[in-house]
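Practice problem: predict the structure.
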Amino acid sequence: MAVPTNIKTLLSGNVVEWARIEFKETWDAEASLKTICAFANDIDNWGGGYIVIGVKEKDGRPDALPGVSPEKIDHYLKDMLNKCKRIQPEYLPIVEVADYEEKKFIVIWAPGGYLRPYSSPRTMAKNEKERVYYIRKMASTIVPSEEEKRDLYNLANNVPFDDRINHEADLTDLNLTLIQSYLKEIGSSLYEESGHMQFVDLCRNMNIVNTLPEYTKPKNVGLMFFSMEPQRFFPYAQIDVVQFPDDLGGDRIIEKIFKGPLHQQLREALQYIQNSIIQEQIIKIPNKAEADRFFNYPYAAIEESLCNAVYHKGYDVREPIEVRVLPDRIEIVSHPGADRSITEEGLRTYHVFNRRYRNRRIGEFLKEMHLTEGRNTGFRKILNALERNGSPKPIFETDPERLSFCTTLLIHPEFLRQNEGVNEGVNEGVNEGVNEGVNATLTDKEQTVLEAIKRNPSTSVAKMIKELNISRASIERAIKELKKRQMIIHEGPAKNGRWIVLK
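Answer:
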C-alpha cells in the first residue's frame, strides 16, 4: 500500500498543514510511536498525519535533507513494525520508502483509525504497563485532558459522514478514469502504479474504500469525487446557480444546475459564473496614465466562497448549494450552518477560528487540487480579494438553529450606481409626483424601506425582511443611506424603539 501523496508535496507544506507533518532526522521509536498514536486518534478529524524520516527540522519546518542511510532502512522498517504492535487496539500505519534529490526517505502515513481511541506505552521499557491516549494539538503530541479524553471516546461512534462506508454502493460505482486523472493532476506516485495494480488495491491505497477483504465497499468521499453520478447516492449533491435579474420578487429567473463529481461541478459552476456573471469596468481618469479597472465581483472571492460551501456542506442534507445572483449582490447558501464553535459575533467581526471540520476528507481532495487552502484562511482570502477590488466587505450569516450558512458578496459601488441610474431613468415618470424633490433620487429599495417605515414606525429589520422579501444586507444598506440623507432617525432602544420620518 502506498502513501496517497508525494514527499515533494509534504516538504513544501502547500497542501498538507504543517501541524499534520512531523520531520525526524532518524527513527526515534518512543517519540514516533506516540505521534503515530496521536494521528490515529485524530481527535479533530484532520485525517491523521505524516512522519517523514530523514529530514532535519527547525521550528516544525524542513531545515536540511540528510536522508536515511540505505543500510539503516531495513532495520528501521522492522523496528517500526515491532513497535507499532504495541499500540492498542491493533493499528499499523502505511509506510513507504521515497526517493528525493538522490536520497532515501521514509514516509509514515497514519490516517485516523476506526477503532479509536488508541493507546501506546508511556515508555519503550520492556515491562512498561502504563498506557496513554495521545492526541495531536496544533503541532504537538500531548496527553489529553479529561474532557478531551471523553471527546476521544465519543469519536468511536462519530465517524465523519464523508469517511463512512456506503453500503448501497459497490466497487464498480468508482470510475478508474476519474481516479487516474486526479492522481495525475496532483502528481501522486500512485499514478504510475495505477496502470498495473488491481483496482481494489488502488482504491485501498487512496483510502476511498474500506479495508475488509470480505466486504469491500466505497466510502462516501470516494463516491463524491470518483463516481460519474454521485447524486444517485447523495440527492441534491449539486450546485444551483440562480439569477434573479429583477430581484427576488421579480418574474424572471435564470437557472443553471451543475452535477457530477464534486470537483468537476465546482469547476464548471465557477467557469459559468466567470463567463456569465462577472463583469469588468474600466474608467479613464483625467490626468492619470492608467485607467481604474475593477470587477462587479472579484473572481477570487466567489471562488473561495463557493469552495468553502462545497467543503462544509452536509451531504446527508437534501438541499443543494445555491448561488443566488441578484442585481446588487451574490448570496451563496449551503446547509447546514456553521459549527457551534463559530459565534455570530465572530462572523460579524470576521474573527473565525475553527479546527473541527465537517468534511475533512473532502477538504483534503480539494486542497490536493488547489481548489481551497484550509487552515482557516478562507475568510481572510475573501476579505483580501474584495478589498483589492474596492468592493464592500462580505456578510457571513448563520441562523440560530444552524440550519444554513450564507455568504453575501455585495456588488462594487460603481456598478450599483450604474444600475440605480438606469432604474431612476426608467421609473422617473412614475416616481415624479410621489417622490418630488429629494425622494426622486432614492433607489427602489430605499423608497420601499422608507414606505415600510412610514406605515409602521415601530418596525424592525427582521420584520421588513419578512414583509418586503428583501435581504438583510439590502435593508441595512437602505437604512444607512436614509439616515445619511437625514430622512429618518431612530429613537429609543434597538429592539423597542421607533422610527421618525424627517422628510
